[in-house]
Amino acid sequence: MNNKENYLYKRKQSKTTDFVMWMAFPGIYSFSMSSLGYLWMFKTLDECEDVNVERICSDTEKTRFNIKDVKLFGFSFSFDMDFLTIFSMLEKYSIPLKSKERTDEPLIFAGGPVVSANPEPYKDFFDFFIIGDGEDVNLTAVKICKNAKNKHEALKLLSEVEGIYVPAYPGKVKKLTKRLTECIYTPIISEDAFFKNTFILEMSRGCANRCGFCLASYLNLPLRCVPYDELLKTINLGLSYTDKIALLGAQISAHPHFHDVCKYIYEKIKSGQKIEMSVSSLRVDAITPDVVKTLTAAGQKNSTLAIEAGSERLRKVINKNLTEEQIFNAVKIAKDNGLKGLKFYGMIGLPTETMDDLEAIVQLGRKVKAENKGFDISFGFSSFVPKPNTPFQWCGRENTKSLEEKANFLKKELHKIGISSNVSSIKWDYWQAVLSRGDESLNDFILEVYKSGGKLGAFKASAKKLNIDTDYFALKNYSFEKTLPWDFIDISPEKDFLINENKRLLSDFI
């Protein structure tokens, strides 16, 4: 895409095929170059002899191939609001948004966490979806589309493949879960990437903690770890191209060899090799002196700790079994071993939350600050959004006014004690909740939102115009007997397990 790109694999550039596909990222180029999953999908297709694949971003100006020659157009769909950019990219290339209105245009598909969890609000716009880990099935899908006589034959064949959902052929679809035998890494390093010249590698996928609200955990169960030898081989590959590496995973510190990896990097730094290393976030109970020493030696000054809630009671409710003692111990280790500060990540509006739980956050901040003079403490909050395939998928969220009052309370009280904090937009989180638990009735709604400009006001006005009760999706508590829009996805753990987990966590408080 530009001459500042460094490919870490051998490209097959002279291909004798007329099959062209675009892999699209619904965001600007610099963000796409720091998206591990998107780049890895591109790599696997780029290595195919019989596919001409090109990367497209929202700010792509010139393309190598003409849209008339493109047979397949795939999108990475990682965030609920990505549909706005996806629609604008389709329109940019004069492609009708609804699949039923397309004839000679390419087949349009999507994969990623949003559509793996619940594709129903978007089903009118895509010909098919990849549900779950797409590394392998992606290649199968491309092969089918390449060899099929026409679109109808392609879609029929795709509907018979495990892990592919074709709205034209509804039925049970099994979510794909890949064994992590190889390490997925940044295959193209760019100085124009958001994380400039950074080699990102995935240490693990999934999270065994199973917090009741967490889609990243439940959608990616079981926790899978890349073999240690494979990790070292991949780290060395990355370090032969750049001195910046980042370790990725929802629960990297649960990797059985996490400390060995840190030691390996630390010894390289001590022997004179320049390495900058960062990690996505750390578990409170996994902060040890050797880990922090490695991070500080590798240039990391701050880290993030997800504590989710201020009181032990509420942490138990969400299955985040973390004591205050462990939190204070983690801060002490971080400070004593060279980190300059920590950002605590929390959530407001969790099921059963009371003002006492919010007070507990302020008390925690006050105590941590008092005991760690000169150490930078900050807080970041988002508000609870019920997510499909989690124990809390039946829990409605609090109304916007109440949550904004809570957010303002926290910001004000933390500011009083000299702690900075930021809170995600409560209003945007509301619409995220609507889309998360939405059904097929939202297809025309999101189209109307897009046509009306896609700002906050457009969401409200579109719901009113189409007479859609968005509070039903965002705020209502659902009964366990209710058929949910995503129930057709065969995923482990199953619905009965989630119901039992919901009862286990919440029964004492509701």
Give the total of beta strands: 19
Structural class: alpha/beta
Using the CA coordinates, give the radius of gyration. Answer: 23 Å
- How is the CATH topology of the largest domain named? Transcription Regulator spoIIAA
- How would you sum up the global shape? globular
Largest sheet: 6 strands, mixed
Low-confidence stretches: none
Mean pLDDT: 92
The CATH architecture of the largest domain: 2-Layer Sandwich
Care to give the gist of this entry?
By secondary structure, the chain is an alpha/beta fold.
What report would you give on this structure?
By secondary structure, the chain is of the alpha/beta class. The protein has three domains: 5-174, Rossmann fold, CATH 3.40.50.2300; 197-300, Transcription Regulator spoIIAA; 301-510, Transcription Regulator spoIIAA (2-Layer Sandwich), CATH 3.30.750.200. It has helices at 29-32, 36-46, 82-92, 113-117, 137-147, 151-159, 215-218, 228-239, 258-270, 289-297, 312-317, 324-336, 355-371, 400-416, 426-436, 443-451, 456-465, 470-474, 495-506, and strands at 5-7, 20-25, 52-57, 70-76, 107-111, 128-130, 164-165, 173-174, 188-190, 198-202, 204-205, 224-225, 244-248, 276-279, 302-308, 341-348, 376-383, 420-423, 489-490. The strands form six sheets. Strands 3-2-4-5-6-7 form a six-stranded mixed β-sheet. Strands 15-16-17-18 form a four-stranded parallel β-sheet, with helices on one face. Helix 5 packs antiparallel against helix 6 (151-159), helix 13 packs parallel to helix 14 and helix 16 (443-451) packs across helix 17.
